[in-house]
């Protein structure tokens, strides 16, 4: 059974909540349903699950009066045998985006507080207009992702003490012992090939077979494309699909800024912008915006029309390049400009799962470029990503600014520091 850090968040919510339901957001197949089932069965005397996609007839339980006694009555009619134990029951609304009135009902269920309620949704950003009243103040939201690199290491069986030892090297800016560093880089390349989708990780653990891994990833990608066909508007269906399938090509360019011309010759923002937004709202992609100047607060300097797009899981990106890309990644034999874009998506994967918004810096009139900008202690922290090693003229230029206290150079190497520039290997981004 995969250990997920989200489990600790659920436990904290259960202990600290007051008149508050929990809403877990995230893409499909990242493990939301499995996690809530595990949590419910381990922490409650009674666990009741309602899946609004598998059991669409349950939606009618929320068509009328939304007071709690009526909701329970209507649910019990449709699910005979349920048992409500006051203060020892968890009701689980799965795929709540398919029943907007159930989302509205969270307010009244939270106010009643007789039992706990957790809802999950994978396409919540797509149908907010259908919700008659969003339960502001009565739901705590949590965004869940596929496994991050540390969770992947847990799955491989790496002891927490070993991870904490690496964290000490990161904190003290001390090089990691050579053999340990090489092992960690090997684990990272495996993570890139496998990614963090729970079912894919389980297949890898069970079989150690990259063919099986690739087949499972292809199933997920096909499911995502089917979701586009099922849920996108008629006008957006082909455009969203084409935007999604263009991302591997976008990242293979020297400048990974999203270009509509890569989707279709002569493509424009007017034609495709809504389709890209659909992909973002479905949690399939992440936007990374250009900030000029790169100053705190970054949100004040965003250029909305200049952005990069990264996939929500590094393993799915590698899969989209074809099976042989796995061999190139795992054996570290990949070369060419495409390597830079892949490692950008890898670090974006790390940062998103650490809850950082994604920003980058690139001037229009020069080659000056830094892949990511973070905010720490009311200051900007520039992050330059190298697929292997190399110069960092753009990072060095930013570090000359007095208001920037330090920055990171991320490489296929070891830990070090030179002035305000801190060098770390890619895998240590789990400690940022």
- Which series of helices and strands comes N to C? HEHEHEHEEHHHHHHHEEHHHEEEEHEEE
Average the pLDDT over all residues and give the rounded result: 94
Helical percentage: 40-55%
Share in β-strands: 15-25%
* SS summary, helix count: 15
The chain-level structural class is: alpha/beta
Domains (count)? 2
Shape assignment: globular
How many E strands? 14
Could you give the order of strands across the largest sheet? 2-3-4-1-5
- Low-pLDDT runs: none
Mind summarizing the main beta sheet? 5 strands, parallel
The N- and C-terminal alpha carbons lie at a distance of: 27 Å
Calculate Rg over CA atoms. 23 Å
Q: Any overview of this molecule?
A:
- This protein is an alpha/beta fold and 432 residues long.
- It has two domains: 6-143, Rossmann fold (3-Layer(aba) Sandwich), CATH 3.40.50; 149-431, no CATH class.
- It is built from 15 helices and 14 strands.
- It has helices at 6-16, 32-43, 68-78, 100-112, 149-156, 160-172, 178-194, 198-207, 210-231, 237-251, 269-281, 314-320, 324-330, 338-353, 393-399, and strands spanning 21-25, 46-51, 89-94, 116-121, 139-143, 285-291, 302-311, 359-362, 369-370, 372-376, 379-385, 407-411, 416-418, 421-425.
- A five-stranded parallel sheet has the order 2-3-4-1-5, sandwiched between helices. The protein has a five-stranded mixed sheet with strand order 10-11-12-14-13.
- Strand 3 (89-94), helix 4 (100-112) and strand 4 form a beta-alpha-beta unit.
- Helix 7 crosses helix 12 (314-320) and helix 7 runs antiparallel to helix 13.
- It starts with 5 loop residues before the first helix and ends in a 7-residue tail after the last strand.
- The model has no long low-confidence stretch (mean pLDDT 94).
């Amino acid at each position: 059974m995969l250990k997920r850090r989200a489990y600790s968040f659920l436990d904290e919510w259960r202990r600290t909540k007051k008149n508050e339901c929990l809403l877990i957001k995230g893409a499909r197949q990242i493990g939301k349903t499995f996690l809530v089932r595990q949590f419910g069965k381990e922490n409650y005397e009674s666990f009741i699950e309602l899946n609004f996609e598998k059991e669409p007839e349950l939606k009618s339980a929320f068509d009328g009066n939304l007071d709690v006694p009526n909701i329970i009555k209507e649910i019990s009619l449709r699910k005979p045998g349920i048992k409500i134990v006051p203060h020892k029951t968890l009701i689980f609304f799965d795929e709540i985006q398919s029943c907007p009135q159930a989302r509205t009902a969270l307010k009244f269920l939270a106010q009643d507080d007789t039992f706990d309620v957790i809802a999950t949704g994978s396409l919540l950003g797509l149908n907010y207009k259908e919700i008659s009243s969003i339960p502001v103040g009565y739901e705590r939201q949590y965004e869940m992702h596929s496994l991050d690199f540390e969770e992947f290491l847990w799955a491989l069986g790496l002891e927490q003490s070993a991870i904490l030892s690496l964290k000490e090297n990161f904190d003290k800016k001390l090089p990691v012992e050579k053999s340990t560093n090489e092992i960690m880089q090997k684990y990272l390349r495996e993570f890139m090939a496998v990614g963090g989708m729970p079912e894919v990780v389980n297949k890898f653990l069970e079989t150690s077979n990259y063919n099986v891994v690739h087949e499972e990833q292809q199933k997920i990608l096909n499911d995502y494309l089917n979701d586009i066909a099922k849920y996108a508007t008629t006008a957006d269906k082909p455009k969203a699909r084409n935007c999604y399938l263009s991302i591997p090509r976008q990242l293979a360019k020297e400048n990974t800024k999203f270009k509509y011309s890569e989707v279709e010759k002569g493509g424009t923002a007017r034609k495709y912008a809504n389709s890209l937004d659909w992909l973002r709202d479905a949690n399939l992609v992440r936007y990374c915006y250009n900030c000029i100047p790169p100053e705190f607060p970054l949100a004040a300097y965003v250029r909305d029309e200049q952005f990069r797009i990264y996939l929500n899981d590094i393993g799915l990106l590698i899969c989209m390049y074809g099976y042989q890309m796995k061999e190139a990644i795992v054996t570290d034999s990949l070369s060419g400009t495409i390597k830079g874009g892949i490692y950008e998506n890898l670090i974006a994967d790390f940062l998103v799962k650490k809850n950082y918004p994604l920003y980058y810096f690139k001037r229009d009139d020069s080659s000056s470029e830094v892949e990511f900008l973070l905010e720490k202690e009311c200051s900007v922290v520039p992050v330059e990503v190298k697929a292997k090693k190399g110069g960092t003229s753009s990072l060095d230029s930013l570090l000359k600014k007095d208001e920037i206290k330090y920055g990171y150079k991320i490489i296929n190497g070891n830990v070090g520091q030179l002035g305000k520039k801190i060098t770390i290997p890619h895998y240590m981004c789990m400690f940022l």
